Every structure is written in C-alpha cells, then in structure tokens.
Q: What sequence folds into this?
C-alpha cells in the first residue's frame, strides 16, 4: 500500500548509512595507517642518512661517529634546558634599566668563575677516564634537571643553585668532549673537519630538542625539564659506551713537564704567576688565535646588547625596532649554521688562517656599518658575525687539540672558554655603556677590532722573533 512505502524504505536506509559510515571509517583508517607508515619510512630514511653522514670517511671505524651522535643528544638536552630557563631564571631583562642588564652579564660569568680555576684542572686528573668524566657531567645535569622541574613547580629556593649547576656541568662537558675528539680522529681527517661535523650535529640537535621542549613547555616549564632529564640519561649511557681509545694515555706528557710551577730560585708560584707562565708557554699560533677569537666574541656581545637598546630607543625610520632586531639576530643564527658547512669546505686550510680571516671580515663589516648605517649593513654584520663566531671556535678548538698535550688540554679549553666569555661580557658592557648613536657605537667597536687585529699580528711577530 502507498502508505506503507516509507516504512519499507526506512529499514533499507539505516543499513545503507551504516555501511557507508563503515566504509568511510575504513578509508580514514587506511589513510591514517598509510600516513603513519610514510612518516615512519621518512624517519628511518632520515636516520639512515644521518647515520651515513656521521660514519662517513672512516668516522664510524675510528669511533668519531659516536662522539658526534653524543653531541647531538647532548645539545638536544641543552636546548630543552634553555627553553625551560629562558623565561624563568636566566631571562635577559632587555626591557629593564641598563644596570639590570649589567647584573645579567655578571650572572653569565658565574659558571666560568668555577670552570677555569677548579673544573679544568679537576677534569685533567681524570684524563684516563674521560668517558666517565663526560658521562658524569651528563648525569649531574640529568639529576639537576629533575630537581629543577620540582623546584620550578614549587617555586623553591633551589631553582637558582640547580640552574647554575646545570650551566657549570654543561661547560665542563664542552671542554672534556673537545679534549677527547683527537683520540677518535680518522687518519685522513683534519681537526677542523671533525669539529665542523660536531658543530653541525649540535645545530640539528638543538633544533630537534628545542621543538620538542617548546611543545612540552606549553604545558609547563617543568615538563620540558623532565624531557631534558630523559635526554641526559640517554646521553650518559652513550658517553660511558664511547670507545676505550678515549681513555688512552699513549704518548702523554706529565703535567709538570709542560707547565712550570716554580720560578728560578723561587718558591711555588702564585696563582697569577702560574697563569702568566701558562699563557707564555702556549704555542704562538694558539696565542694569536685566542686574541682573534677575543675580538670576534667582543663584537658578538656588543651586537647583542647595543642593538637591543638601540632598536628600542632609536629604531630605523619607518621600521619596527623589534623586527630589525629579529632580522639581525636571525641573520647571526643563519650565519652560525652556515659556518658549520663552511668548516667542512675549509677542512684542508690551516685553522690559524681561518681564525684570522674571520676577524678581518668582522672588522671590515663594522667599519662599513659605521659609515653606511642602514638595515642592510646591520643584517650583513649580523650574518658575518654569526659565521665568524662559529668558525673562530672551530679553528681555535682545532689548534688546542693539535698543539696542547693531553695532560693539560682540558685546562687550556677551560681557560679559553673563560677568556672568550669575558670578551663577550666586555662587548656587551661596551654596548650598554656607549651613547645610543649607531655611528659612534660601531665606530668605537671598529677601532677596538682593529686594535685586536694588530695585537694578534704583534703576537705572531714577537713569538717568531724569539723562536
């Protein structure tokens, strides 16, 4: 009957709709599984390519690949730690008075006040157990990150001591790892090439760790710290599993054979005399490289703080000061990343020439910025400065690894890190002390870089005359 047709159609429509929904659900499920398989394949392919890169050129057989992979994991943890602390303990108060920023600069020096006089010599005593020394610096950070996570959540007084301990441990890791790299170098590898490969792995590690920690920090800074804890635990195991060759003592000199501790007819030297004696005993190439690196770091510290205040008080006409600052610092970051690739291309060059060349480039760019102050010169000086900082570090590290005996290498790394941090702080102090006149600021820093460049030449000439 006509009135019964809707009743007959109703039962048919229900199963049809259910079947269509099932088919749509299966299609979505298949697409999701296909996407997951594709992402998994892409991830495995990326991991294979990364593994091929780290092991290329005999780095896998020598064990260098392991320390490169360790550096990747370590920097991922450091990035997570930095994300957590960026808005809490060590946030730079760029919106505050200059005196507040000066206090921040002094705060950044705290880890280095322990690194050079205490941590460096202590780690040199463990040069036959470098794997455990490196692993110890990572295990300490893992423990302190767990403490920090709880301290931040509870607003505890232990926040600052734990954060400071993390920074000291991070610097101790840096100098210890650098002193171990020559032990794992393939026969045809240069130190510049090895350091550049390490630096590139570190850049990727920071990117990966920063992205993951940034997502977790949206829940709360304690969650990115717990992620850092897990990363450092993995890195600790990786450090202990480094090749035994890292602990080898073959060919080492005793510390007293390389560093004078007594003057002629004198008692034991004071701390200042010991420091001067150690610096005087450094090879000519290393002294000149350190002088050049001081100039490079001084400019980077100056740029960071001088531009922060300049763009706030006197931005470029018609442009946002925040945008200009972001462009300059972004160019510096891009230059820093590009320098890791340049380091590979310059692997056959002498590291002394690399360090000198980047200081010359920095000097030229600051002079151009003082004369032709504009957005483009600011971006270019940021780019060149970023390249220079990374290449100067790679080159200086290579000279220390090449010319300093194992028995004192970690101490020399600690001294160089401390001296270069002082240079960064000095540059920042100049930036906040000078009047906010761009031509004057860049003119003053240009004159300082010229003086540093002449100083490096004087060191080379003086040491050559005595040799």
A:
């Amino acid at each position: 009957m006509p009135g019964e047709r809707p009743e007959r159609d109703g039962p048919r429509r229900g199963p049809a709709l259910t079947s269509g929904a099932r088919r749509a659900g299966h299609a979505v499920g298949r697409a999701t599984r296909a996407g997951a398989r594709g992402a998994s394949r892409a991830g495995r392919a990326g991991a294979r390519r990364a593994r091929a890169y780290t092991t290329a050129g005999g780095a896998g057989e020598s064990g260098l690949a392991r320390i490169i992979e360790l550096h990747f994991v370590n920097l991922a943890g450091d990035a997570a730690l930095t994300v957590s602390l960026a808005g809490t303990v060590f946030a730079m108060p760029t919106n505050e008075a200059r005196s507040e920023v000066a206090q921040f600069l002094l705060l950044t020096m705290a880890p280095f006040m322990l690194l050079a006089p205490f941590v460096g010599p202590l780690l040199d005593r463990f040069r036959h157990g470098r794997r455990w020394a490196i692993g110890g610096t990572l295990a300490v950070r893992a423990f302190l990150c767990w403490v920090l996570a709880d301290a931040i959540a509870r607003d505890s007084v232990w926040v600052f001591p734990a954060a400071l301990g993390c920074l000291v441990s991070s610097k101790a890791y840096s100098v210890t790892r650098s002193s171990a790299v020559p032990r794992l170098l393939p026969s045809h590898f240069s130190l510049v090439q090895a350091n550049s490969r390490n630096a590139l792995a570190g850049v990727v590690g920071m990117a990966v760790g920063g992205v993951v920690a940034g997502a977790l920090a949206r829940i709360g800074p304690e969650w990115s710290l717990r992620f850092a804890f897990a990363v450092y635990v993995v890195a600790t195991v990786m450090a202990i599993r480094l090749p035994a060759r890292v602990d080898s003592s073959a060919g080492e000199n005793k510390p007293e054979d390389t560093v004078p501790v007594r003057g002629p007819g004198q008692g034991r030297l004071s701390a200042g005399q010991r420091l001067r004696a150690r610096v005087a005993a450094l090879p000519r190439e290393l002294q000149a490289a350190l002088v050049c690196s001081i100039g490079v770091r001084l400019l980077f510290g100056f740029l960071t703080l001088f531009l922060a205040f300049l763009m706030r008080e006197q931005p470029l006409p018609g442009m946002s000061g925040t945008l200009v600052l972001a462009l300059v610092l972004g160019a510096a970051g891009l230059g820093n990343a590009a320098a890791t690739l340049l380091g590979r291309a310059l692997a056959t060059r002498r590291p002394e020439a690399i360090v000198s060349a980047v200081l010359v480039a920095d000097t030229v760019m600051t002079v151009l910025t003082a004369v032709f102050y504009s957005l483009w010169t600011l971006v270019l000086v940021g780019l060149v400065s970023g390249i220079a900082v990374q290449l100067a570090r790679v080159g200086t590290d290579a000279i220390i690894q090449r010319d300093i005996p194992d028995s004192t290498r970690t101490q020399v790394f600690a001294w160089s890190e401390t001296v270069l941090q002082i240079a960064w702080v000095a540059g920042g102090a100049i930036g906040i002390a000078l009047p906010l006149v761009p031509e004057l600021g860049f003119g003053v820093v240009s004159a300082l870089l010229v003086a540093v460049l002449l100083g490096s030449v004087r060191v080379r000439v003086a040491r050559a005359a005595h040799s």
